Amino acid sequence: MSAQKQVRRITVPQIAARKGGEPIVSLTSYHAHTAAIVDQYADFILVGDSLGMVMHGMESTVGVSLELMIMHGKAVVRGTEKALVVVDMPFGSYEESPSVAFRNAAHIMKETQCGAVKLEGGKRMAETIRFLTERGIPVMAHIGLTPQSVHTMGGFKTQGRQEAEWEQHFEDARAVSEAGAFALVLEGMVEPLAAEITRRVAIPTIGIGASAVCDGQILVLEDMLGFNPKPPKFVKVYGNLGEQIDQAVKSYAEEVKNRTFPSESQIYR
Ligand code: KIV
């Protein structure tokens, strides 16, 4: 009998085949417990480098390391069995050259057992995307507002407000699609631009702050759960986890201080 664990996850070709079809559901997750919940409903789970800001209190995603992505990627893969797990390549791990990108992407895939990686950038990353996909590494691309470039963009700004900018985004979308990316995240862009990119490219577009016209949607889990006191303006908040945690911690603290903490719950069984 084989000792191998048989896991039937959603595959990269299955996600790619959803272009123009049933909308793709995705969320970020960074740890095993939340990933297990998300796994029931999502087609893919992104271990986004937003974890640097959401979990580690960084000001941007620029400081996120490969090791951090691998640690959280492993946790998410362990906690899930159905969704495709995609791990973000952090800033500095792929821009230098296609071979550096390959080495780091292969390291992420071997260590985490994820099914694909994501990297930011359009035309300038096309050669790297081709290099990776030709060597067996599925790549999800990410254009529009690309948070790793926050310092060159001068902040987190909605893209495409001026029609004159659109051609650059069309070129980016075409370049990554032709280079072999299996899906394309469109972040922070005006709806008509996202709609036109979605119409033009042959791969599914996944929107975040890019309207409902995309082939799928992604949100940062903590934002939509109400765990971020200042979520981005476009986020619909579906839960109130921040308040619930606050209430729970407050009740616990009061019980401990007032000596009303139930004594049976202090016994390790
Ligand atoms: O890092 C992240 O969470 C992302 C999503 C916002 C798409 O890249």
Describe this protein's structure:
With 269 residues, the protein is an alpha/beta fold. The chain has 2 domains: 12-238, Phosphoenolpyruvate-binding domains (TIM Barrel, Alpha-Beta Barrel); 240-269, no CATH class. Helices cover 38% and strands 14% of the residues. It has 11 helices and 8 strands. It has an 8-stranded parallel beta barrel with strand order 1-2-3-4-5-6-7-8, surrounded by 5 helices. Strand 4 (116-120), helix 6 and strand 5 (139-144) form a beta-alpha-beta unit. The model has no long low-confidence stretch (mean pLDDT 95). Bound molecules: 3-methyl-2-oxobutanoic acid. 3-methyl-2-oxobutanoic acid is lined by residues 28, 46, 48-50, 88, 142, 185, 187, 208, 218, 220.
What keyword list fits this structure?
8 strands, alpha/beta, 269 residues, binds 3-methyl-2-oxobutanoic acid, TIM Barrel
